[in-house]
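hi support,

uploading two proteins for the ticket. first:
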Amino acid sequence: MDRKIEKKTWSTKRILMITGIAAGVILLTWMVLTTVGGKSKLDVDTDRLTISEIKRGPFQEFIPINGTVLPLTTIYLDAADGGRVEQKYVEDGAILKKGDPILRLSDPDLELQLAASQTNVTAQQIQMQIAQNQAQQNTITKLQNMADVESSFKEAERLYKLDKELYAKKAIGLQDYQIAKNAYDYQSQKRNLTRQILIQDTVLVKQSASQSKEQIAQMKGALTVMQEKVADLTVRAPVDGQLTSLDAEVGQSKTKGEHLAQIDVLSGFKVQAQVEEHYISRVIPGLTAYYVDNDNHNFKLVVKKVYTQVTNGQFNVDMLFVGAVPKGIRKGQTLQIRLVFSDEVPALLLPKGGFFQQTGGNWIFKLAADGKTAYKVDIQINRQSPDYYELTSGLKEGDKVITSSYETYGNIEELVLKK
C-alpha cells in the first residue's frame, strides 16, 4: 500500500540561504551605523594594543652593529718560491720574535741553480785575476821599454848638443853634425811613440779592469738574489707577533705565492663591522662609534677605513679605539657597537612600533582625552634610532598614541577602545 511522503518545509539548503541573507543584512546595517558622520569606526580590545606616550628627551641617531675584534696589523706569509715542506719549527698559535724560523721548504732545482751560480762567480773571479796579472806584466814590460827609450834619447840629445856646438865652431864637419842630429830626431820620435803606447796601455788596462769588476758585480748580484731565494725557503717571522692560520704539513708541496700562514701583531686591536648598504653614503672615516661592556664602561671608537665593495647587501668598516681599550678583549670576539650619525639633542620622542609599516610615518592613531577612542592625525618624522623616531610635528609631549601594527585596520579612521 503506497504512503504519501510529505515535503519538508525547512531544508538545509534553504536554512543556509536565509542565514547568509541575514548575515549580509546585519553587516550592511553595521556599516551604515559605523559610518555615521562620514567616519568608519572599529571596536578594538586595548589588551591587544601598544599604547605609547610622547616624551621629550635626548635623541641621538645611531644604528647598532656587530663588530669583530681583529689584530691591528696582520702580516700574510706566502711562499716566495714553490717547494716541499721539509720541517716545521713551531705550531699554530706560537708567539714569535722577528726572525724566528717557522718552517723550511726544499727545492732541488733552485739549490742546483745556486751552486752553478756560485761556481760561475768563482771561475770569473779567477779569470779576472789572471787577466789582471797579465796586464800588470805587460805594463811592466812597457815601462822597462820606456826607460830604455828615455836613456837612448838622453844620450842622443847630449851628442846632438855637443856636435851642434862643435859644428858652430867649425871643429867638425857637416856630415858628423848631421849624423848626430838624425840620431837625436829618431830617439825623440821613438820616445813620443813609446809614451803614447804607455798611455794607451794604461787606459786599456783601466777599462778592462772596470769591465771585469762590473761583470763580477752583476754576477755577484745575481748570486745574492739566488742566495736570498734559497734562504727564503726557510720561512721566518717578519715581525714580533702570534702565528695564526698555519697551513702546512711535512711532505706537502707548496706552489709559488700559496698562502702559508699569517702573523698577528699584538700591539693593538681594530674592530671590523658590517653595515647595511643603505648607509654607505653616510659612513665616512672619522665617524664616531661606542661600545659599552658588561660593567657599563663606555669606550669610544672612530671609523678608520670604509670598504666600498658591497657583498650580500653589506659593506665593511674598520674602527679603532680612541683612548682606553676594553680589558681582556681577544681576537675573534664580537662586540655590540653603536655607530653614531649625530650629536645628542633634545627632541620629541615617538617610540618605534609596527604602525610604521602601514603608515610610513605619515600618520598615527592618537588617543582622545578620555582615552575611549583614537583617531588619525598627520605627523612628520625626521630621524630615527633603534628605539625612537624624532618627531617634528603633529603631536606634543604627553600625547598618547597607538604604536602597534595597523595591519587589520584597513581604511578605518577611528578606533573605539574596549577594555
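and the second one:
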Amino acid sequence: MVMVNIYEAKTDFSKLVARAEAGERITIARNGRPVAELGPAGGITIKREPGVLAGKVWMADDFDDFTEQDERDWYGE
C-alpha cells in the first residue's frame, strides 16, 4: 500500500493519477491518518497471464465425482 500526505498528493496529483490508471491504489493521509483512496475507475484491473500456473496445480482424477457418501455427508439422511 502506498500512502502519501495531502501536500504531496496536491503537488504530484497528475503522477498519482497515472499510477492509479496503471492499477495502483494510493491512500491519501492527513497527519498520518488515512482519509481517502485514489485508484483505477471501475475497480482494479490486473493484467492476466493465461497459463502462469501450468504444471503447478494438481487435481485428483476423482475430483468431480460425487458419491452417495458425499450426498449423505452434505444433505444428511
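thanks. also noticed: The two ends are 50 Å apart (CA to CA).
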